[in-house]
Every structure is written in C-alpha cells, then in structure tokens.
Amino acid sequence: MRITFLGAAGTVTGSKYLVETGDRRILVDCGMFQGLKELRERNREPFPADPSSIHAVVLTHAHLDHTGMLPALVRDGYRGPVHCTPATADLGEIMLADSAHLQEEETAFANRHGFSKHRPALPLYTMHDAERAASLLRPTGWDTDVDLGGGVGVRFRRAGHMPGAAHVTLTVGGRTILFSGDLGRPNDPLLPDPDPAPGCDWLLVESTYGDRRHPAIDPTEELGAVIRDTAAAGGVVLIPAFAVGRAQELMLHLHRLRQGGRIPDLPLYLDSPMAARATDIFERHPEAVRLPPEECRVICRDVRTTQSVEESKRIDAMTYPRVIISASGMATGGRVLHHLKVFAPDPRNTVLFAGYQAAGTRGAQMVAGAREVKIHGEWVPVRCRVEQLDGLSAHADYEEILAWLATLPAPPKRAFIVHGEPQAADALRVHIRDRFGWECTIPKHRDTFELEG
Ligand code: ZN
What we know:
By secondary structure, the protein is an alpha/beta fold. The protein is 32% helix and 20% strand.
C-alpha cells in the first residue's frame, strides 16, 4: 500500500491524499489550493493520476480546501462514489455550487474589465461540473463501516470543526490509516467535541495551529468590544467570515450580546445567501450540531439576510453604524470584496477577521498591516481599523491536538504531519516528539510513501 500527498503538504490548503493498494485507488479529500499564486496555479495542473482510474473518493468535510476540486475531477473523468457524512453531503452540494458560481462570475467580471492575464479568462470549472460532482455524493451515517469494495472500508467519526466534519479511518486489508481531517476544539458552543482517536497503523494529523495556543478570551466579549468602539465612532463593522460555520457562530455571539444589552441596538446583516442556506442545513442535522434546532432558529431572528446583489449594494449606501457579516472569510472572493472597496478606505470603520488567514490572502495581508490591497485589478487604500478575533477558531491548537492524540489506544507505526504552514508543522513535530516520543514525518508536495508491515 502506498500514499501520495497531493495537497496540504507544507501548506493548509489543497488537501488530497491518494491511497493505492493492489488494484484500488482511493482519494481522501479533493481540495482546492487557495492563497499564494504559486499554490493556486496548482489548481490548473492536470490531476496527477487519471481521474477515471480512481475507485472512490472520501471527504472529511465540506470546506472547499477539502472538496473544491471535485467538480474538476468529475469533469476530467471521475465517475465513482464520493463518500461523506450526511451534513457534509448537504453542505458540499451548496458549497460546490457556490464555488462554481463564483468562478463563473469572477471570470465574466475579469473578461468584461480586461484585467485577467489569461485572455479570455476561464473558470476552474462550471456550474454544470459542480452539479455532476454533487450527484456523486453518497452520505453515510456516523460510526458505521462502509465497504468500498476490494477489501477497502471507511468509517467516519466526529471531528468538530464544522457540521458534518469527520476524522476518517480507511481500512485496507485489515490495516488502518487514520486521517484527522480538520480537528475542532472541545466545548465549542455550536459543534460537538471531536470523538476520541481510534487505533490505527498510520496516522495523518493536521497542524494548522501546530505552533500556537489559542488565548483564553471570551469571544462574545471580544466581539462586543469591537462593535461598541466602532459604533461609537459612527462606523461600520465588516466581518469577512466563512459562510458555513463561522457565520452561524458569529450570529450566536451577536444574539448573546444583544440579549444581554452589551451592544447598542444597531442593524445586523448577514450578506451571504449561502450562509442563510447553511443555517437551514444546521437545523436539519441535529446529529452534527451541538446547538438545538430551536436555538438555531432563534439566533437567526436578530439578523437581516440579504439575498439579491441589489440588496447587498443597498447596505453599502446606508450611513449609520451597522454590522455586516459577509463571505469569503479570507477576503479571497465573494460579496465581501465589494464591501471592502466601500468600507476599507474610511478610518471610522473596522474590518474584523474571524478566522485563520492563509498566507497570500487579502485577509493575511490586511491583518499584517497592509495599507492597500488589490481588489478586482485596482488598489484600495486600507485606512480602517483592522482587527482579528483571537477567541474564535475552528481548529484545535497544539495542546488540543496533543490531547486528541493522547486518546489513541496505541502509538501508530508512523505519523505524518500535514495541513500546516512549514513552521506550524515543524513545531507540532517537536511537540509530538517531546510528549509521546514519536518521530513524525512532514511530507512534501507529491511525496509518496510505501506503508508496509
Ligand atoms: Zn476545514
């Protein structure tokens, strides 16, 4: 048996692991590269293995950096099943459609305004490709063994992180590989705790925050302080946020702040049709969400949802303080870009980032203090206050990763550290060596390893 690291090796995006055994090829995750241009260009490269030769795809969760290239894989010949949890299937369908829609919209915009280097600019894939990919999704329950044929099986266990997110055990001829997927945090208000790690022969563990501890800050209060300060200055709080998971978590904190009278009574907007649809899916999947469905409905009551682009533009033109949550979370695309063009130049406003900002994204540039950012081919001055919420994270920090690893019944034969910038991955390697005495491998992009014994 062998494994090839086709993404999330030395970086946090593009998760793709190809497991080959005898006559079977299984792909775990099919993520999109995001952030630095050098990484994004990999999305345009031909898939390293013939897609029609792959027997099954398994998804850990619905985030695009784990699923976003599935439409391209299907366009290029993949016809097999895509196994995932029920919430991942529902969320994956809307996220892939949204990704294709964004692709088509951005290329049309680039072609109209002539700022793309590719003439004409072409989308990575189309809505049609995304629909075909979604038709292959095969939802499976938690804690159930699924037979993929050829002596290969898969089992999903809860990973927290986002609704439907799983850590995945792949069984091949009696041997097991455990993929941590993205690990969430214990005691999250919205999501279940990660299930303990089952025994495995080989392990892949994520390392997004392999070099960091999350500060013990109350995220509700942190958010409230920014809103109070900005409102007092007469400004707007713009929160770029992932539409699925983070947007709902923010709504929960906003609800608590408003209930407790801890922020002024100002309008709260959710400018992301996908976030609104995702909230409906949360209600339909109580098995994947800690918050009861009734409470999901309650937190939505405080927030006005905008659907059309006209409504979205109208909230830019209003002159009073307000809070706007809009996607995407790292300001790499979506409606938030139009809001940034309007709000970033005004010092009364605050742009509040609410999650991990991958290297090379506009979010990372702004958090690092960039005084201007390029949006749609033009430079936009950043004179607003830029803040980041430290108390919110969908990823375990290194102590939380170590606590999860400590639930393994026995050490793996070999552990691979993936899904982290090089510094974070190496820091986790040292933490694991010091705590457990295991020597971990940090694979490089396209490395292949034989898994023997
Ligand atoms: Zn994720």
